[in-house]
């Protein structure tokens, strides 16, 4: 199996095709990248910028470059000695436009008689033999249907007609009643939908890749990539939605000839990947959380907790555990109630529970579930604990929960299979997409894959986690930014400084709230942190984020019922950043106060992520400052020309000043190149201790099989405290051999060396042994 040393994620779309990606390969090679990592490239909904709404899995999307584009990219990678990793989407397909998806079109036209009927997860009995499509503005809109060109039309939406169901002169409503689908009010999807979907997205229909024939047809094109040596590895999107993730991964390994595979899997604290998973690791959210927290000051927690309590008007800060139980229950009773009801209908009548009782019990168990899902028999203990918690929280459900538990523990029972597919949906919507916008004490902590109640990680704990990662998942990905992160790496690096300056932040926030008030204190904290993290940013970007964050939180406004008065105040507050000189000055002054500190955090986190155990990924463009906010802000185009020109300056010998964007490019390129060109320097992991007054501000580790044979990473942590304490002073580390800094070219050691000297130019250093160096 060929494995990557590092990867670089590119977002492939019509405005940046596979041909465009092929042209960037020489730059990526110069940067030090080992493999090119592509977003989904199969044919997707027209105009899709992300590609997760695949409409035809049988071909590479022509709008993304088609098969010729993939061939061009693959050839370019091969010519430069690089591999190719591709993101695939096995859980669902895009059905927003039925004519674009031949599988879905066939299902709607022929119903249970369609050759693709077994591909989709439809509860035919609930729909009376029909697929329920929540497409109408209201049920009264059936009057707006028309038959045209042999299709049923609703405004721009087109649907097929089953053979023999239309005769000239028939009313569109009568024709509609004869079809294998039922158009209905979109609001009814929450409780009445009868097909599995991706989370609450009705335009993404789940497919049953656990069926061999479905797997084979859905992956024929993916298989071709490997038989024709076009691709070297795969990233699997959302495996938690599958009926049998472990079985799927075994099939995928066989299909790909044993290729390198990663899964997009969020691991909660203490959770590990099931041993049955035929993959090399995760896409790195777990690594992201560890890196973030080792650069957060634990001393700031008390003050930020107090600020959070005051913003909520309570004696104590938000109770996160209670919050997520509530948000998950809200999701289970709301936008995902159709999935919960489907589970309830699978409980045999002989068990004595009504559908409502069963649904209540199922929803409470899911709300109590501490991880995304189980993989029975793996996770049986977690399920039992969740049931105990549910019964304790709702004693009136003790009988219902007790009745459900043996059914949910049986790996072969349909309700157990579907429960496992559903629990992660509720977790994602209730936690990532709701609670993360409500739990606002420090934005760094509410990142995808993170545990927000873990405020900070001490260096000792970080080292233990890295040693475990080296032993158990050395080929798992590490990352700091992805297309899914709520805030990109350098926005979080700025926000992390707030933990060192909590009083200054509280005063700044109080001023901003007075100048541009929004009647939701916790939301104001979230919004102003995001603005500071992303600044400077356009009005359009910040308005888009502000609206999305407010509606996702769902406290003061929602997607389905926007509160116009509240949202007008949000819009006014964001406008004030640009139009009110007083507000602009407060934001500018605070950003200026923390800018150098956040730059230290940024390059420190980047160097650690690029040199720690695992396969480091660089998200497109993040070799410069990456201060994006949540999707779609983090999918903006990248100016590769500017990066290429700056890299050429570095390679010509120009050393950038500390704190500049070019300094991050220097760190990124030198770390990537060293890992690729001297892999023997990254074979182990050992903490490196410092001595002296500021030793706690140094995060240091060696990556060789022993302390003298590998690369040595030195990174500054908690820079505000370091500055306030008078700098490094007598802090020192011992070097057992002479080592050269890959960033500056300076040589240090052997013996005890001053950290102030090693970090005299930049807040980080990447040292490599001088002996045995390649020419």
From TrEMBL:
InterPro entries: GH, GH13_cat_dom, Maltooligo_trehalose_synth_4, Trehalose_TreY. Residues 4-654 form the Glycosyl hydrolase family 13 catalytic domain. Signal peptide: none annotated. This is Malto-oligosyltrehalose synthase. The lineage of its organism: Bacteria, Bacillati, Actinomycetota, Actinomycetes, Micrococcales.
């Amino acid at each position: 199996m060929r494995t990557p040393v590092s990867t670089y994620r590119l977002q492939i779309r019509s405005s940046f095709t596979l041909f465009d990606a092929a042209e960037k390969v020489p730059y990526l090679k110069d940067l030090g990248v080992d493999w090119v990592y592509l977003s989904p490239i199969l044919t997707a909904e027209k105009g899709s910028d992300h590609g997760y709404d695949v409409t035809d899995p049988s071909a590479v999307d022509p709008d993304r470059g088609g098969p010729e584009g993939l061939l061009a990219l693959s050839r370019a990678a091969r010519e430069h000695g690089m591999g190719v990793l591709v993101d695939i989407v096995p859980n669902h397909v895009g059905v927003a436009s039925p004519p674009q998806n031949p599988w879905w079109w066939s299902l709607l036209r022929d119903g249970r008689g369609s050759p693709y009927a077994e591909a989709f997860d439809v509860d035919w009995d609930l729909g009376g033999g029909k697929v329920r499509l929540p497409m109408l503005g209201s049920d009264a809109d059936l009057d707006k249907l028309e038959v045209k060109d042999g299709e049923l039309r609703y405004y721009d939406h087109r649907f097929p007609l089953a053979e023999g169901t239309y005769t000239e002169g028939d009313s569109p409503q009568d024709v509609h009643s004869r079809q294998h689908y039922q158009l209905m009010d979109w609001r009814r999807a929450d409780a009445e939908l009868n097909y599995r979907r991706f989370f609450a997205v009705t335009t993404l229909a789940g497919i049953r890749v656990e069926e061999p024939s479905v797997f084979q047809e859905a992956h024929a094109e993916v298989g071709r990539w490997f038989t024709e040596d076009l691709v070297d590895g795969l990233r699997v999107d959302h495996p938690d939605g599958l009926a049998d993730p472990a079985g799927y991964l075994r099939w995928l390994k066989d299909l790909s000839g044993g290729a390198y595979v990663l899964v997009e899997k969020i691991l909660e604290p203490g959770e590990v990947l099931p041993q049955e998973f035929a993959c090399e690791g995760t896409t790195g959210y777990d690594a992201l959380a560890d890196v973030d927290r080792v650069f957060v000051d634990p001393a700031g927690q008390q003050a930020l907790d107090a600020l959070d309590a005051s913003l909520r008007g309570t004696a104590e800060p938000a109770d996160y555990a209670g919050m997520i139980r509530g948000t998950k229950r809200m999701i289970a009773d709301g936008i995902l109630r159709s999935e919960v009801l489907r589970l309830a209908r699978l409980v045999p009548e002989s068990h004595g529970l009504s559908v409502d009782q069963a649904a209540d019990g199922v929803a409470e168990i899911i709300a109590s579930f501490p991880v995304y899902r189980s993989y029975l028999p793996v996770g049986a203990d977690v399920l039992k604990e969740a049931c105990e918690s549910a019964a304790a929280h709702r004693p009136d459900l003790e009988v219902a929960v007790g009745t459900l538990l043996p059914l949910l523990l049986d790996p072969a029972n349909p309700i157990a299979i579907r429960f496992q597919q559903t629990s992660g949906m509720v977790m994602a919507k209730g936690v990532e997409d709701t609670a993360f916008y409500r739990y606002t004490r420090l934005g760094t902590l509410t990142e995808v894959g993170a545990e927000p109640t873990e405020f900070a990680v001490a260096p000792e704990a970080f080292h233990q986690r890295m040693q475990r990662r080296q032993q158990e998942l050395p080929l798992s990905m590490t990352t700091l930014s992805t297309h899914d992160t709520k805030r990109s790496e350098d926005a979080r690096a700025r926000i992390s400084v707030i933990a060192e300056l909590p009083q200054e932040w509280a005063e700044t926030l109080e001023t901003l709230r007075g100048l541009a008030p929004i009647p939701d204190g916790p939301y104001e904290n979230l919004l102003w942190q995001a603005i500071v993290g992303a600044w400077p940013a356009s009005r359009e970007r910040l308005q888009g984020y502000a609206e999305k964050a407010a509606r996702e939180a769902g406290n003061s406004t929602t997607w389905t019922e926007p509160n116009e008065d509240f949202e007008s105040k949000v819009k006014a507050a964001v406008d004030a950043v640009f139009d009110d000189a007083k507000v602009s000055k407060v934001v500018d002054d605070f950003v200026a106060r923390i800018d150098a500190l956040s730059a230290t955090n940024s390059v420190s986190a980047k160097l650690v992520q690029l040199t720690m155990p695992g396969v480091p990924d660089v998200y497109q463009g993040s070799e410069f400052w990456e201060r994006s906010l949540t999707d779609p802000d983090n999918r903006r185009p990248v100016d590769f020309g500017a990066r290429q020109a700056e890299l050429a300056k570095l390679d010509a010998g120009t050393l950038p000043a500390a704190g500049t964007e070019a300094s991050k490019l220097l760190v990124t390129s030198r770390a990537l190149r060293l890992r690729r060109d001297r892999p023997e320097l990254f074979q182990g992991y050992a903490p490196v201790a410092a001595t002296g007054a500021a030793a706690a501000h140094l995060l240091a580790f060696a990556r060789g099989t022993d302390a003298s044979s590998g690369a040595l990473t030195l990174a500054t942590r908690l820079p505000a405290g370091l500055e306030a304490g008078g700098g490094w002073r007598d802090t020192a580390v011992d070097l057992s051999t002479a080592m050269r800094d890959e960033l500056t070219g300076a040589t240090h050691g052997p013996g005890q060396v001053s950290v102030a000297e090693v970090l005299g130019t930049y807040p980080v250093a990447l040292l490599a042994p001088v002996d045995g160096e390649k020419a």
